From TrEMBL:
GO molecular function: 4-(cytidine 5'-diphospho)-2-C-methyl-D-erythritol kinase activity
Name under which the protein is recorded: 4-diphosphocytidyl-2-C-methyl-D-erythritol kinase
Superkingdom to which the source organism belongs: Bacteria
Residue ranges annotated for the GHMP kinase C-terminal domain, each copy included: 229-295
Gene name, Swiss-Prot/TrEMBL: ispE
Organism whose genome encodes this protein: Rhizosaccharibacter radicis
NCBIfam families xrefs: PRK14608.1
Amino acid sequence: MSPSVPWSEPAHAKINLFLHVTGRRADGYHLLDSLAVFAGAHDLVEAAAPDDGPPPGASRAASPAGPHLVLDGPFAAPLRADADAGRDNLVLRAARWLAERSGRPNDATLRLEKHLPVASGIGGGSADAAAVLRLLRRRWGLSDGLSIEALAAASVVLGADVPVCVRQRPARMGGIGEQLEPAPEMPGCFMLLANPGVAVSTPAVFRAREEGFTPAAVLPARWPDADALAADLRATRNDLQPPAIALCPPIDTVLAAIAAQPGCLLSRMSGSGATCFGLFASAHDAATAAAAIGREGWWVWSGPMLRDADRS
Ligand code: C5P
């Protein structure tokens, strides 16, 4: 994060510790029961005042009317920021949606620093869009009339994962992902994230799912430690993991490599993949595992799982 830019928001990686597909709506969207948490790994969104000019370090995208978006960082290459990308780029759509909703000019100058792999099951575009919403809510002085909870609820029009990313705290996701309940009290634990570098299409994974539906999970009010969390998670699953592996076999290799690391309590895919996570009680074990797995040439990260308790 650049301390010199006061208007910045981290877009943390969202990890689905489990994801049960419990049904399907008439419009084709799937009903879910999922426990979402956030990892320390993050993209970064920054906003400048309109007369500050573009943020340093990147050229301004050719976009005649606001918002302006510049892209930077190791995973910026697959993304587009030109005017035509406005339909597809969720960051630009989020800025436009909030401007229209609040009746103000869409004059934001934004910079997205992309550190997380795209189309990888860890929030990605949804987390970036959510960070833009939180940032512009502050930047445009909307905080008094628009709570984070209200913003999260309304933001489902941008995508099923956007509300949980707006709140950016552990949550139990129901409905198509937009019905958020508090998560059980989470223990301190550490995560390893690994991605084999293959983008996976979320609609394709949902379409490839062949099994029936899985009941909602039964969870306690709190987990005292990482071992207790892992023990309960073993009774759950990610229903999108088998179809994602069928579409992208390297996911299975990543899962096996994570599971083989000393201290790994659970190895599972997040969201619709291809990013997989390992759960660890020890920061040292997670970091050692990340160093070992990084030798495969995959994108890896290790660090803490964020808890509500870490924020206040
Ligand atoms: O809402 P979002 O644009 O993130 O979803 C991408 C696609 O993933 C949807 O078009 C749909 O095919 C699938 N999806 C689903 N059920 C969900 C969430 C997403 O079928 N709960």
